[in-house]
Amino acid sequence: MDARIKTRVVRPKTGDFSNMTTHLLPTAEQFAALATLPNDEIVQLLRLVRLKPAASYADGRAATGKQAFETYCSLVDPVFREVGGRRFLLGEFHATIIGPDSEHWDVASLDEYPDAAAVMTMLKNPVCERAAEHWLAAVADARLQCARACQSW
């Protein structure tokens, strides 16, 4: 991982997350590091998501975290495909095989973009910016790891 990437800590305003540090959005430094990736290489993103039991919309509308996440996906997926994105996995977790038993994720995705510029284009798209409302309402914690495609080790 790039040493320039740091963690932004966000504490949700609702829900019982008092003993948990959460990560929901990239920091300015993380966003800047993404922008420095080479534009002639495929970018792969591994996303791990922990959903809130109940979504926490600012306007108080009722939804589960899963429903809010599904709304988020339905809005951003067309933009994702438009920039050339390909999804290899979007699935629910069944069990932890390696790692602490206390760590739990609800959703994993493995996505691929043609280059870093495509990722930046998607993140700056007005549709995706508006969809962030649903992401923030749905997600209790998340990780987004960026990798370069390797031909061999």
Please describe the topology of this protein.
Blueprint: H1 28-35, E1 43-51, H2 65-82, E2 86-92, E3 107-113, H3 116-124, H4 126-138, E4 139-148
Antiparallel strand pairs: 1-3, 1-4, 2-3
Helix pairs in contact: 2-4
Describe the structure.
This protein is α+β, with helices and mostly antiparallel strands. Helices cover 31% and strands 22% of the residues. It contains 4 helices and 4 strands, in the order αβαββααβ. It has helices at residues 28-35, 65-82, 116-124, 126-138, and strands at residues 43-51, 86-92, 107-113, 139-148. A 4-stranded antiparallel beta sheet has the order 2-3-1-4. α2 runs antiparallel to α4 (126-138). It is globular. The model is unreliable at 1-20 (pLDDT under 50).
In short:
It contains 4 helices and 4 strands; from the N terminus they run αβαββααβ. The chain is 31% helix and 22% strand.
